[in-house]
Amino acid sequence: MEQTTLTEKQKMLAGKAYQAGDAELAKERLKAREIVFEFNNLAPKFIKQRKELLKRLFGKTEKMFYVEPPFRCDYGYNIEIGDNFYANFNLVILDCAKVSIGNNVFIAPNVAIYTAGHPIHAHLRDQEYEWAQEITIGNSVWIGGNVVINPGVKIGSNVVIGSGSVVTRDIPDNVFAAGAPCRVIRQLTDEDKDYYYKDFKLGE
Asked: Are 154 and 172 in contact (CB under 8 A)?
């Protein structure tokens, strides 16, 4: 049987070691940077135009989403966002692998989502090898400011990630998690909802 040689892009998307200096990947990153440059440099009033640029850039969008400039990413086509998505200033997504984000996700300023990694041993790193692992974020998630999400992480639904956290492992549903490395602090329950209804007089 004839063995098929994978391209560097195919290796990247398969989670294998690849060389990012490959001509095809460099061309795709340049295309994404051109769109991102236009997005970041439009006047604030051009909301519709910025939204159309992200529709061209991202692999999947829904009806309701808003991303505050400036924004940065590597390829764009590996980013999928759900409905009612909001990202504040300075979101960085290194989407060498897929980044899937659910519905009703709010992202605070200066959040970094990194699918990309490099070999720990300098011998391979010096040859410019890298790898990428998918990141998944569930529904109804709030990610605090200055959070870093590392490759391969899955964050469940109904989760709050405290500001300044470094997320290095999976986070289950219905929890508040924080720290460096990020860990579960406590479960979120209906008592949290009742607190806001009582103290902020919601629903009156």
From this structure: no
Q: Is 11 left (phi over 0), alpha (psi -120 to 50) or beta?
A: alpha
Tokens of 139: 């529904």
The single-letter DSSP state of residue 201 is -
pTM of the model: 0.93
> To which residue do tokens 């200055």 refer?
146
Q: Which amino acid is at 195?
A: Y
Question: Which run of H or of E encompasses 120?
Answer: none
Q: How many CB atoms lie within 10 A of CB 76?
A: 21
Question: Using one digit for the tens of pLDDT, what is the confidence trace for 116-138?
Answer: 999 999 998 898 899 999 999 99
pLDDT > 70 in the chain, percent: 94
Residues with active-site annotation = 118
Beta-strand ranges (E) seen in the chain are 18-19, 65-67, 71-73, 79-81, 85-87, 91-94, 99-101, 106-107, 112-114, 116-117, 129-132, 135-137, 142-143, 148-149, 154-155, 160-161, 166-167, 175-178, 183-187
**pLDDT (tens digit per residue) in 40-99:** 999 999 999 999 999 999 999 999 999 999 999 999 999 999 999 999 999 999 999 999
Angle at 136 between CA 130 and CA 140, to 5 degrees: 150
